[in-house]
Design goal:
Blueprint (H helix, E strand, L loop, with lengths): L3 H21 L3 H26 L3 H31 L13
Helix pairs in contact: 1-2, 2-3
Length: 100
């Protein structure tokens, strides 16, 4: 049977791997995808704590996190599409020219 430590280690490893993905990638779509997976890693730890503490609070928090993640994905993709139409690139370095 898996213990709480196993779930937390898995969550931490997923979070670290996808944090590196955010920092290393040079494509806005993959950066947004990495942020979504990082949120899911945090959700895993919420559900694990809720299960091992015998409370439904973890699942309730996960519901709100998923709702916010869906809104973030919709707004983020809309911004990416608008930026792509302006600059015709998904490289974050290309957007430095848009500053003031």
């Amino acid at each position: 049977m898996a213990e709480l430590n196993h779930y937390l280690v898995l969550s931490g490893v997923l979070f670290i791997i996808w944090t590196v993905g955010v920092l290393v990638r040079r494509n806005l779509i993959t950066i947004l995808l990495s942020i979504e997976v990082m949120l899911n890693a945090v959700n895993l730890s919420f559900v694990a704590f809720g299960h091992f503490l015998g409370s439904a609070d973890g699942q309730i928090i996960v519901f709100f996190v998923i709702t916010v993640a869906a809104a973030e994905a919709a707004v983020g993709l809309a911004i990416v599409i608008a930026l792509f139409r302006h600059v015709e690139s998904l490289n974050p370095d290309a957007f430095r020219e848009l500053k003031g």
